[in-house]
Amino acid sequence: MLEVTFYRDDDGRFAGFCAYGHTDFAEHGEDIVCAAVSAVLQAAALGLAECAQARVESKQASGDLECTLHEEDRGRESVAAIVSTAELAIAQIARRFPKHVHLKGARLQRSVGDPTSQRVSL
Fold it and tell me: Cα separations (Å) of 27 from 4, 35, 39, 51, 106?
């Protein structure tokens, strides 16, 4: 199963998203569910960087994608529009293919004095 998570910070602003795993809907190269999720998330990452001019850190490996927004860009309306649209699209895919895609939300928590963030599922 492919798990897609959209992260929000303590202020409720989108902080990023990630996808891990495989949908296992079909063989590699023929999996339309995987292709749909990949297209939505890659378009969101590209839109954040190129259209919204947001500072993002993206990592991609076989079956995995992670995109994190710089803290100062999280409250921008253009950022929220792109990420919320991606979240809506993934939610539709997850509803249509519940055995293959799981969508969840999570919150980023930052401990006082700790510059690293921890991801906490909601």
Answer: 20, 12, 17, 33, 30
